Amino acid sequence: TVSVLYWALQRRRSLTVVMNARNDRSTVYVGALSADVDEDLLFELAVQFGPVRRLVMPKDRLTGVREDFAFVEYATPADAQYFAEVAANSVIELFGKRIRVSYKGDDQLAADALLEIGAKLCVRNVDPAVDESAIADHFKQFGNFAVPPRLLRNEHGLSRGVAFISYDSFEASDAALAATNNSWLFNRVITVDYADKPDGSGKHGSEEERALYRDTKAELTGEGEGGANAPTSADAEAIKAAGGSAVPAWAQGLNPYAAR
């Protein structure tokens, strides 16, 4: 769930964002895979839509059993989008199960970057046995994620031992940093710090980012100037009806992870 404060902050941020995950533009998610589907079969299917640079089929870190989803990275975004469009407009079945294919274009990637307020942590020395699910399970106790945790992987899909955690508040990221830096995660001691900004201007968690967060929080709670920008009665009713987790009308469609 995402707080009204969080959504208001996204509304105020610039739409000019730095995209630093170029591979995502050429990658599709393939889900609802049968347990009988292996890498060779999926590659044979995927290559029909364009040259495949990498195919990753994650395995459960404890059982070693393949998950029911995979990631396919193409040489170009156009190939990735083509695969997703074909799958959306026709039935593609493998071993009797219809697969699901989704693609994030530049617009969605920009939206993901917009969701991040600067409460972004970098986790290093991550055990090779730790995957994205384990990272999420370990860090979700401190607050809501702005976007799902991301683990850096090499060209073979293996972990590089570095993960990024982006929260929707600085209270959450500060708590996570204080509790997990130099702590054990699986068989390694991890180090946690605020992530470097992609433009090289320093680390996230800066006073500038925190000031924007505080100003927006003050406006929404009616403290100080700008109280008029607090959520409307319609927003309040929507939030009440949804158990306190609704997204205001002006923010609808911005966060693909709001209902998780």
What characteristic shape results from the CA principal axes?
A: globular
Distance between the termini: 7 Å
Helix/sheet category: alpha+beta
Beta percentage is 15-25%
User: What is the domain total for the residues?
Assistant: 2
Helix content: 25-40%
What summary fits the major beta sheet? Answer: 5 strands, antiparallel
Largest sheet strand order: 8-9-7-11-10
User: What is the second-level CATH architecture of the largest domain?
Assistant: 2-Layer Sandwich
Give Rg in angstroms: 20 Å
Enumerate the spans where pLDDT stays under 50 for 5 or more consecutive residues. Answer: 10-22, 224-233, 243-260
Number of strands: 11
* CATH homologous superfamily caption of the largest domain: RRM (RNA recognition motif) domain
CATH topology grouping of the largest domain: Alpha-Beta Plaits
Mean pLDDT: 76
The topology string of helices and strands comes to HEHEEHEEEHEHEEHEEHH
CATH domain class of the largest domain? Alpha Beta
Number of DSSP helical runs: 8
